[in-house]
Automatic annotation (TrEMBL):
EC number: 2.7.8.-
Main EC class the enzyme belongs to: transferase
Keywords: Cell membrane, Lipid biosynthesis, Lipid metabolism, Membrane, Phospholipid biosynthesis, Phospholipid metabolism, Repeat, Transferase, Transmembrane, Transmembrane helix
Protein name per UniProt: Cardiolipin synthase
Species assigned in the record: Haloferula luteola
InterPro entries attached to this UniProt entry: Cardiolipin_synthase (IPR022924), PLD-like_dom (IPR025202), PLipase_D/transphosphatidylase (IPR001736)
Domain PLD phosphodiesterase: 200-227, 379-406
Recorded coiled-coil stretches: none
Gene Ontology CC terms, in alphabetical order: plasma membrane
Length: 466
């Protein structure tokens, strides 16, 4: 096994996309080959360029639809692609416009989120797009399935896209009943049969619902009873979603159409792609931008999104994430923000669902504390939200964590809102979360045992492959 690990470590050094990832794989393959060798066979990314080429070839098929959207933006009064500052940067990164006349409602925790999603689905008239990383065959999941099946029988076009890895435990009967009702249910990668084992490492972590091209939902919730606070150990469950109306909904259909095309080869050209009409009811609404990111992007869009937001902050930068394992550029950007006097706070859980992430989180305490960056640990159950607040007028809610998987491996989706009123609501929500949190200090690690400290150092070394 050590010999296999040695030769695989050479492959990792030659083919892994980042130096940190190459080092982490090389160390683990030579130190813990019994565990690392099977992991590398499943998750190693030595076929990455082949994947990118295939994915981008599929996106070319959607070019006429994307060009139509961009052309409509040029003649519309509800969108722009040439803005300066953070919004302009995010528009360039996402290749999607900043839109005006939007409305956004924050949905705190599971009950309000699913009540709002289910209500919108019940009112659907033309089509429903649903995309989740995890779907459970439990009460919540069956509630979704029953509504989707009913709307499909009524003649509404229903498209359900789910991630193979996240839905490994989803029963075939759940999917069969949906398909029999007329729901177009499709896995993202189709790992059954002769699928490339490499694909397992590229997961669609997006959470998106679009109803009739008019209403959309984006955030951190997947579909399962645990998101309603019913997990046996990780409860209460703290998460955030948002409900959106306005032109940004049209932009949010683009990543779904790309993912659907990748999974099925079909082009969803019958969706409502008229961006200008969406702002008719909300002429004084918010600026918004959809920020889809993924491993086939020309650049590492997700990490650049975080870097752009961090560097844009002048007064405040608050980030809530359950998985805080930043790479060196993000860590240094946070340190710089702290040094220039920005109120930088990172909110993470006290209770983790990953031991590696828990150990890793301790390793950042001292270097961030020295730069004035505060880390807070949420005490009231498990926190799963992915929220970012910059200064007094910009916030994002979505699916991306602050870790290598979100930066380089997962397909993620955030929505950025520039609006003072919305940002103040996000601030109030996070202040409430901070009131249920404790400030983490470097002394928290100093008080731990020697084996614990070793675990922290090893986990930090393995950060690029977590």
């Amino acid at each position: 096994m050590h010999i296999i690990g040695f030769f695989q470590s050479i492959s990792a050094v030659m083919d892994t996309r980042t130096s940190q990832g190459a080092i982490a794989w090389a160390i683990s393959l030579n130190t813990f080959p019994v565990v690392a060798v099977p992991a590398y066979m499943i998750f190693g990314d030595n076929d990455f360029q082949t994947y990118v080429t295939t994915r981008q070839a599929g996106i070319k098929d959607l070019r006429p639809m994307a060009e139509h959207l961009i052309e409509s933006v040029k003649t519309a009064d509800v969108a722009r692609t040439d803005l300066p500052g953070l919004m302009g940067t995010l528009s360039n990164l996402s290749s999607l416009p900043v839109t005006y006349g939007n409305q956004a409602e924050i949905l705190v925790d599971g009950s309000p989120t699913f009540e709002s999603i289910f209500e919108a689905i019940d009112q659907a008239e033309n089509y429903i797009l649903v995309q989740f990383y995890i779907i459970r065959d439990d009460e919540t999941g069956r509630g979704l399935a029953e509504r989707l099946a009913r709307k499909a029988r009524e003649g509404v076009q229903v498209y359900l896209l789910y991630d193979d890895y996240g839905c490994l435990g989803l029963s075939s009967s759940y999917l069969d009943s949906l398909r029999q009702a007329g729901v177009h249910a499709q896995s993202f990668l189709n790992l059954v049969g002769g699928a490339n084992r490499f694909q397992l490492n590229f997961r669609n972590h997006r959470k998106l619902v679009v109803v009739d091209g008019k209403t959309a939902f984006v955030g951190g919730h997947n579909v399962g009873d645990e998101y309603l606070g019913l997990h046996p150990t990780l409860s209460p469950w703290r998460d955030t979603h948002m409900r959106l109306t306005g032109p940004v909904v049209t932009s949010l259909q683009v990543p779904f159409a790309e993912d659907w095309n990748w999974a099925t080869g079909e082009i969803l050209d019958h969706l409502d792609w008229n961006i200008e009409s969406k702002a008719a009811d909300t002429p004084d609404g918010m600026e918004a931008i959809a920020i889809p990111t993924g491993p086939a992007d020309p650049m590492e869009t997700c990490s650049l999104y975080y870097l752009a937001a961090i560097h844009a902050a002048q007064k405040r930068l608050w980030i809530a994430t359950p998985y805080f394992v930043p790479d060196e550029p993000i860590t240094q950007a946070l340190q710089l923000a702290g040094r220039r006097g920005v109120d930088v706070r990172i909110l993470i859980p006290e209770q983790f669902d990953s031991s590696l992430v828990r150990y890793s989180s301790y390793s950042y305490l001292r270097e961030l504390e020295m730069a004035g960056v505060q880390i807070w640990r949420f005490q009231k159950g498990f926190m799963h939200q992915k929220v970012l607040l910059v200064d007094d007028d910009f916030a994002t809610i979505g699916s991306a964590n602050v870790d290598n998987r979100s930066f380089r491996l997962n397909f993620e989706l955030q929505v950025g809102i520039r609006d003072v009123g919305f940002a103040s609501q996000v601030e109030a929500m996070l202040r409430e979360d901070f009131s249920h949190s404790r400030r983490a200090r470097p002394e928290d690690l100093d008080r731990q045992s020697w084996p614990f400290k070793v675990g922290v150092r090893v986990s930090r070394l393995l950060a690029p492959i977590q």
